[in-house]
Amino acid sequence: MTESFEMDLDRYVQAIYGKKVLSLVALDIRGKTSIADAYLICAGRSHRQVSAISEHIRRDLKESNLKPLSVEGEKEGQWVVLDYGHVVIHVFLDPVRTFYDLEGLWADAPNVETPTMLTEKEKPVAEPDYFEMDDEFELDNLS
Questions:
Q1: Domains in the chain: how many in total?
Q2: Residues 42-52 pLDDT 10s
Q3: What is the domain range of residue 45?
Q4: Which long-range contacts (CB under 8 A, 24 or more apart) does 17-24 make?
């Protein structure tokens, strides 16, 4: 892992942490695929929150002249993919994240911790906002 790689990822991580996200994971997939160098995986508690997180990421990164090559799934709010070329950001609805288990699929990819991720780890964990949770979501809808 190079320090410049982690610093490059940190700009994306800062944008992700601009909204309340659940358990951000950064995977170094260099040398494992030609798709990207890193996957950033996080989740939200509701369809609205997932869409809001992805919209915030796009706006925040646009201020640094970083624009996605493509965005998929933002209207549905279950699994949003923001493709920035060398970095792909996955924003899941929490049960959908568990169902697809990208971290398990890429288990051989090392986890990366950027400076912002280390700082966020030290902060106290906030209680969930139960008004933000989707009661109607069922995993049966994925099959």
A1: 1
A2: 999 999 999 99
A3: 3-115
A4: 17/116, 17/120, 18/56, 18/57, 18/60, 19/44, 19/49, 19/52, 19/53, 19/56, 19/57, 20/44, 20/49, 20/126, 20/129, 21/53, 21/91, 22/94, 24/117, 24/120
